[in-house]
TrEMBL record:
GO molecular function terms attached to this record: hexosyltransferase activity
SUPFAM superfamilies in the record: Nucleotide-diphospho-sugar transferases
Protein name: Glycosyltransferase involved in cell wall biosynthesis
The keyword Mitochondrion is assigned to this record: no
Keywords (A to Z) from UniProt: Membrane, Transferase, Transmembrane, Transmembrane helix
Residues that span the membrane, as ranges: 278-297
Organism this protein belongs to: Flavobacterium croceum DSM 17960
Domain (Glycosyltransferase 2-like) ranges: 5-108
PANTHER family for the chain: GLYCOSYLTRANSFERASE, UDP-GLCNAC:BETAGAL BETA-1,3-N-ACETYLGLUCOSAMINYLTRANSFERASE-LIKE PROTEIN 1
Amino acid sequence: MFTFSIFTPTYNRKHTLHRAYNTLCNQTYKDFEWIIIDDGSIDGTQDLVSLWIKENKFKISYYYQTNQGKHIAYNHYSKYANGKYFISIDSDDAAKDNWLERNLFHLNQLEIEGKNNFWGIYCLAEDQNGNLIGNKFKKDILDGNWVEIMLDNMQGDKGYSIKMDVFKEFPFPEDVKNVYLPESYFFHAMSSKYNVRCVNERLIVPWVDEREDHLSNELLKRRNLKGLSYGCLGFLKYSMRYFFKFPKEYIIKSIYYVNISFLIKKKFTSQIKEIESFWGIVLWFFSIPAGYILSVFKQKKYD
């Protein structure tokens, strides 16, 4: 068993994947495997990865899926991962040389302190020019629930490592494919049972100038609406205990969930079954009028 099973989903990123590879070559901690899930690339990604596998600097496993989406790639990764911890690096990003070493240090601290109800570590990110992305946590070491921390003015990309047994406990839904499904849904699910330790250390390096075209146009397409609804569903299904602390955010998410449900013609019974949570259903019910009105205006955009 490896300490880390590093996950990289990719789609036509042959020209940037070397950043992740070079990052792994330079890591100060070496006990890891790299699992690449290719979501249908046609740019020669497989040939490039084959060359790296022949170099044999560390274990690389490459798997191909046909345009099913990043969230499905997570589930495929879960089948092949042999590490104690999940950690990921995107196909166009990099990380600090001590990225794994520092994550392991903090993960070990959780074990030493007996914090078995924690899913893992959340860390800061900086761009390729050394600028902090988003903001710092309120304390250098901040323990708490991800949902509460996120809603309390957390901004920008963050890195994370997760205990593998916890990661595998919460597979992504597979009823939608080849769409963008927000990772926040997964974090809501995971945070319904576990807490997180946040650390003010810059460990990942997203290349921000090349990310604008990834999703901004895709998010507006009608086929992505069902995936996007999961980003709102996470609040209603898993995290209603924070409603009274952040009512505005929950009301907005509930209205958008109803709005999307009207646009994709999802039945009320299906929405209720999907939400499950009693208080989530209550909030959903009172959001129906506003959600419907919003969908009437939005419908013209998608016709």
